[in-house]
Write a structure and sequence with these properties.
about 280 residues, elongated, Rossmann fold, alpha/beta, about 20% strand, Helicase, Ruva Protein, domain 3, about 35% helix, two-stranded antiparallel sheet
C-alpha cells in the first residue's frame, strides 16, 4: 500500500473523530516518513506506507491530539516539542507574542508565568536577542519540556526555567522586576464543554480555574505590579468572555488595560501597565 492509499483510508477512519481527518493523516504520515507535509504531498505519496502508521491512526481515533502523537507543534514559526505534561501551543496565543514585541521591543528582562512548553517565552526571546528570560511553572515535567525546547532552538543562554507556583507565598521573592511579564494562566470553567481531545489528554492543571474560570487571575493579576519594572508591561491571555472581569481585577490592583483580539476577532490578550500615579508607575 502506498502512502497515498494509507492516507485515504485513514481519512475515512478518522472522519467521525476529527474535523481535519485528511490533514491528520497527512501529518502522521509525514512524521513517520521523516519529512515535511509539503515534501510528502509533492514527492513521497507513492512511497510504501511505513510500518506503524495504522497504530498512529488508532491513537488519533481515540482522540489523542496529533501534536502529542508526533511530539511536535509549530508556534510563531518555531518548532516546539510537546508532551502530555504541557498544553499544546495554539495559534491564537501568537497574538500575545506580537503584542509583547510591539509593546516593549527593547525589553531586557522577560518573565513567563506558567511557561509550560516555553512557547511564549522562547518565541519572544527569539526576536529580542539582547533579552534574558525566566520561565516559571509548578510542574517539573513541564519545565523539562521547556528546557529541551530552549536547547533545540539555541536559546538556552537567554532562558532559564525555575519551579514556582504563584499561589504560594514568596514564590517571586528572588525574581526581581521585568520589562515584560507573559502569562497564559488556566482560565477554563470547571464544567466547560471541551473537545474530548482537550479534556481527556491535555493537563487539567493548566486548563481549569474554578467555576467561572477566574481563580488564577484573582491570584496572579494583583501580583503583577510588584513584578513590573518602570515602564514594564504584562501580557495576559484570557477567555473570550472574560475581558471585563479581568480588567476589573487589574484595575483594583492599580493596572490599566488594553485589549487585543485574535485573528477571529475574539478578545484574547490584555496588555496591563501600572496606572499613572500608582507606585512604580512612570513619571
Amino acid at each position: 500500500m502506498t502512502a497515498a492509499d494509507a492516507i485515504r483510508a485513514a481519512a475515512e477512519q478518522l472522519a467521525a473523530t476529527s474535523d481535519t481527518a485528511r490533514l491528520d493523516g497527512e501529518v502522521l504520515m509525514a512524521h513517520l516518513l521523516g519529512c515535511t507535509r509539503t515534501e510528502l504531498l509533492l514527492h513521497r505519496m507513492q512511497d510504501p506506507a511505513p510500518p506503524g502508521f495504522a497504530a498512529l491512526v488508532e491513537r488519533r481515533m481515540g482522540h489523542e491530539p496529533v501534536a502529542y502523537i508526533t511530539g511536535r507543534q509549530e508556534f510563531y514559526g518555531l518548532p516546539f516539542r510537546v508532551s502530555p505534561a504541557v498544553l499544546i501551543p495554539r495559534g491564537d496565543s501568537e497574538v500575545l507574542v506580537e503584542a509583547a514585541l510591539a509593546a516593549r521591543p527593547n525589553a531586557l528582562r522577560v518573565l513567563d508565568c506558567g511557561t509550560g512548553s516555553g512557547a511564549l517565552l522562547l518565541a519572544v526571546l527569539a526576536y529580542l536577542t539582547a533579552a534574558r528570560g525566566v520561565g516559571v511553572d509548578r510542574s517539573e515535567e513541564a519545565l523539562a519540556v521547556a528546557r529541551a525546547n530552549a536547547e533545540q532552538l539555541g536559546l538556552r543562554p537567554q532562558a532559564e526555567f525555575r519551579q514556582a507556583d504563584w499561589t504560594a507565598a514568596g514564590w517571586s521573592g528572588e525574581l526581581g522586576r521585568f520589562d515584560l511579564v507573559l502569562a497564559n494562566p488556566p482560565y477554563v470553567e470547571s464544567d466547560a464543554e471541551l473537545d474530548l481531545s482537550v479534556r481527556a489528554h491535555e493537563p487539567a492543571g493548566a486548563l481549569f480555574a474554578g467555576p467561572d474560570g477566574l481563580d488564577d487571575y484573582r491570584v496572579l493579576v494583583p501580583q503583577l505590579p510588584a513584578l513590573l519594572a518602570p515602564g514594564g508591561v504584562a501580557l495576559v491571555e484570557i477567555g473570550a468572555k472574560q475581558a471585563e472581569a479581568v480588567i476589573a481585577i487589574g484595575a483594583a490592583a492599580g493596572l490599566s488595560a488594553r485589549l487585543h483580539h485574535d485573528l477571529a476577532g475574539r478578545p484574547r490578550v490584555l496588555e496591563f501597565k501600572i496606572s499613572l500615579g500608582k507606585p512604580g508607575a512612570d513619571a
